[in-house]
Amino acid sequence: MSNQSEIDLLNTKELFDFLQGEMPEGFQIPKKDIPRLTPDQAMTVIWYLGNKHWQVTDHIERCGVCGEIYDTWGAGFCLDYGREPYHFCDDCMSSEEFRRKAKRNPNRKERRAFLAGEWP
Ligand SMILES: [Zn+2]
Questions:
Q1: Using one digit for the tens of pLDDT, what is the confidence trace for 44-94?
Q2: How close is the Cα of 63 to the center of ligand 1, in Å?
Q3: Are the CB atoms for 109 and 96 separated by under 8 Å?
Q4: 46: which residues sit within 8 A by CB, 6+ positions away?
Q5: Do 105 and 111 meet the contact criterion of CB atoms below 8 Å apart?
Q6: Contacts (Cβ under 8 Å, ≥6 apart) of 43
Q7: Higher local confidence (pLDDT), 120 or 59
Q8: 2 C-alpha vs ligand 1 centroid, how far in Å?
């Protein structure tokens, strides 16, 4: 077995277990958000991703305000402190939720810049 196919197999096994509720080491997910698919359902998701030739990346996020999926490389913003929401799509960056949270930014420099209308 080539090194790449070994890696593919390990990653696929990890995804298979993840989709059934087994968290990989180092991941902490609120209990209510842990997926609990059956083995058949988990394999259907893997089959779907494989057949779509999707490469699953870590720069796609879901807006915590409106629920839209967006690419963080070209849009939106992340305020990863305090309570949810953490991710904001472009549209929701003008929302009251974003304004309220940005005002409580623990980073004083960013908070001051936000209040002066210069950030983000
Ligand atoms: Zn949004």
A1: 999 998 888 777 777 888 899 999 988 898 999 999 999 999 999 999 999
A2: 5
A3: no
A4: 12, 15, 16, 19
A5: yes
A6: 16
A7: 120
A8: 42
